[in-house]
Amino acid sequence: MSEDVYSDLHKPAVIIAGCFVVVAVALSTLLILKHLKYYTNPAEQKWIVAVLFMVPVYAIESILSLWSSKLSLACDILRNCYEAFALYSFGRYLIACLGGEARVNELLEDEAKKLLCKPLLGKEHKGHRRSRSSLRNFCCQPCVIGKDLLTIEKFGLVQYMILKTVCAFLALILEICGVYGDGEFRWNNGYTYIAVILNFSQMWALYCLVQFYNVTHDRLKEIKPLAKFVSFKAIVFATWWQGVGIALLCFLSVLPKEGKLQTALQDFLICIEMAIAAVAHVIVFSVEPYRYVPVSDILNVTTEKKSSEVKLDEGGGKEKSAVVEETKTKVEAPGTSVTESVQDIIVEGGQRVVKDVVLTINQAMEPVEKGVTKIQEKIHHRFESGGRTEEFEVAAEEHVTTEDVQKDTFVCTEERVVK
User: Would you tell me how many other CB atoms lie within 10 Å of the CB of residue 66?
Assistant: First the structure.
């Protein structure tokens, strides 16, 4: 029954979804090219381009998966990997809009000082450090944490990017071994455990981003962050829960339990949603703020004046001469080719991603290393205690004999354990 439904709806679904994909890819590509052409603020625009690429990547992979079910797993892996990278890019975009990491640290420290008690006589408040590292403050009052909030935000985004990529390739391995069970909530399938892990990871990443936004939204008023945040979060959050929701409906027999139908429905909905997202991106990530070159980037300004004589008729056959001056101003500013823009995005953006990934891995390994060190110290201590050496001091019994009186002197034997 479900196979017949899939066969009847497959062709019209591909045609309809294809139309939406064409619209989505066309609008996103045009917007990306405009940003590459007017690449006047590399610190911000490199991350904007990375976020905008999410629409064509999602749309193309979804239509390919819908067209051929054999490509669904590979497309889903690539789509998931780029989703995690796009979420990271959006976080980096907010940091760039605030002036970079150094400036963000200063802003967060200022916000923390406004709320924490001021030091008295040069002495730090007793609860200052404790409150900054409190998990309760991060959940209820993140601005108290100070610059540590930026570290937490970056860790939340990067951990999701790493886990999403690792789980995507793990799903491929499990599928090859026949134990993945895409969309099936069973204890003997890998899909259940991966879905739970990614769910917590994504929720933590989004929550870190929300907390960072809550503290900095006043500073980001110029870029209208709420619209950008909602448009991007809707893609990441909705598509994930949409897939989980479809899987649950199939599990509860509300929808037919057919793998092809389940995957096809998800791909079809994503194709439609990407067209809507492309329209939203044109509005919220407009290139207009970057069309104007900053005054500091202007190389040379030249002024050219031209004058010409004009005769005016005053009436009565009298003429009067007048001089008209025309002034032309030429502004020379550094231009940016698309090739240079792409090179900056790949090189500079790639280096930034690698640094953050390495930093996150080191932060994650630090408590593990401390735990392993403590375990080794305990084992070493117990080993030394178990193999302690025992020293026995034994005094021999002495007999002293004299001619008159025979004296026996006994020296007590003493046993002493030296640790």
Answer: 25
Q: Is 328 left (phi over 0), alpha (psi -120 to 50) or beta?
A: beta
Could you state, in order of their start, the residue ranges of all structural domains in the chain?
2-290
pLDDT grade, residue 127 (50/70/90)? very low
Q: Residue 403 carries which side chain, given as an amino acid letter?
A: E
Distance, in Å, from the CA atom of 377 to the CA atom of 331, rounded to the nearest integer, reads 69
Distance CA 13, CA 19 (A): 10
* Predicted TM-score (pTM) of this structure: 0.69
Which helix (H) or strand (E) segment holds residue 398: the answer is strand 398-401
Q: Hunting for tokens 């381009």 — which residue is that?
A: 49
Three-class SS of residue 127? coil
pLDDT digits (tens, 9 = 90+) for 354-396: 888 887 788 777 766 676 777 777 777 777 766 554 444 444 4
Q: Sign of dihedral through CA atoms 93, 98, 101, 104? A: negative
Q: What amino acid occupies position 366?
A: E
CATH fold group of domain 2-290: Rhopdopsin 7-helix transmembrane proteins (1.20.1070)
Instruction: Name the strand (E) or helix (H) holding 101.
Output: helix 101-115
Give the C-alpha separation, 199 to 203, whole Å.
6
